[in-house]
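// run 5 | inverse folding | seed 20
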């Protein structure tokens, strides 16, 4: 018998993504029975709003998952590594927003607009991984192009908002902007350099080959989600002084020729995509317009005549929503509709 309501735990409930999880669950009328908000001792005991009530934040503990159906995790990789298996053992299905399980072969890595059928594979580990925020918006925009013309090569450069690094990173940008205007010392904790009025081509740690881990996440996750292990992908990931929404410059080469007009027509009809491409009216996707929105915005579509079948696109989405909380809740919606 199908349940009418599902008990949901949000791990990392006080964080930038956790806040969006509550909002998205509420907005989309997810049939929540109990909502259990979990965080560290730093914020246990706080109250946070949900559906017009104030819910107490509880300390995340080993026995936090009794009677929970779905665990939405966004409290960092080490928290997921320890607590996701405990949640599964207690009977929950975990949708994990960290990098902890994404590349494990028996954990599905899902963007519903692209590979929703992979969700069926959750049964092997009880865990479904939510991709990296920059990967999600990239594959939502590229899936219809891949279906129509088959991707041969993808070159992506990102302009990533500070909220991708969490609440403290947003505070750091605010503090630095204010300090620079008022002649005070800037504080640097989350970023290796001043982020205010700067662009930092360094997200996550550097690997031996000179790429950052964030860049490798985009490459490997894109290949896994498209089930194209040999797809040529290269990435440069850059942190910019924007609070919310990641932007991406994307250059693709395809097997078949796709005109700019053809790409626009396909993208206009694609699930999860909103085409904003009227350069004559100065209309193109911008971070400030996409924040708080669900769609992946695509614009600036033009042919790249430096190669045989090339296209350029500009792709923008709210990294905390489609890049994290919304994608996780969409996965949970399919879980309860088809599996739980
Ligand atoms: P807390 O408020 O107790 O620090 P962000 O990505 O915005 O920094 O948020 C991270 C989220 O993960 C916060 O809700 C934070 O809770 C939570 N978190 C971080 N470390 C732990 C931990 N060891 N146990 C439980 N929650 C944690």
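// decoded
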């Amino acid at each position: 018998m199908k349940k009418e309501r599902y008990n949901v735990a949000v791990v990392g409930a006080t964080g930038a993504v956790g806040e969006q999880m509550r909002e998205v669950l509420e907005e989309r009328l997810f049939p929540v029975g109990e909502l259990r908000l979990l965080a560290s001792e730093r914020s246990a005991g706080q109250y946070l709003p949900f559906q017009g009530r104030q819910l107490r934040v509880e300390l995340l503990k080993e026995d936090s998952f009794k009677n929970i159906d779905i665990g939405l995790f966004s409290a960092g990789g080490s928290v997921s590594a320890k607590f996701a298996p405990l949640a599964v053992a207690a009977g929950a299905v975990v949708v994990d927003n960290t990098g902890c399980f994404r590349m494990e072969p028996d954990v599905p890595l899902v963007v519903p607009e692209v590979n929703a059928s992979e969700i069926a594979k959750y049964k092997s580990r009880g865990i479904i991984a939510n991709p990296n925020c920059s990967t999600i918006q990239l594959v939502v925009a590229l899936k219809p192009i891949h279906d129509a013309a088959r991707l041969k090569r993808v070159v992506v450069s990102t302009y990533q908002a500070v909220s991708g690094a969490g609440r403290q990173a947003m505070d750091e940008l605010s503090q630095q902007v204010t300090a620079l205007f008022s002649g005070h010392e800037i504080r640097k904790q989350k970023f290796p350099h001043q982020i205010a009025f700067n662009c930092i081509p360094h997200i996550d740690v550097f690997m031996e080959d000179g790429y950052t881990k964030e860049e490798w996440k985009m490459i490997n996750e894109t290949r896994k989600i498209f089930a194209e292990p040999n797809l040529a992908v290269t990435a440069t990931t850059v942190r910019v002084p924007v609070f919310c929404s990641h932007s991406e410059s994307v250059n693709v080469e395809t097997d078949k020729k796709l005109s700019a007009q053809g790409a626009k027509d396909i993208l206009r009809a694609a699930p999860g995509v909103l085409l904003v491409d009227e350069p004559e009216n100065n209309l193109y996707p911008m971070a400030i317009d996409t924040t708080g929105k669900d769609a992946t915005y695509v614009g600036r579509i033009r042919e790249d005549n430096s190669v045989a079948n090339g296209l350029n696109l500009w792709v923008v989405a709210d990294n905390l929503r489609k890049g994290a909380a919304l994608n996780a809740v969409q996965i949970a919606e399919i879980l309860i509709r088809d599996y739980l």
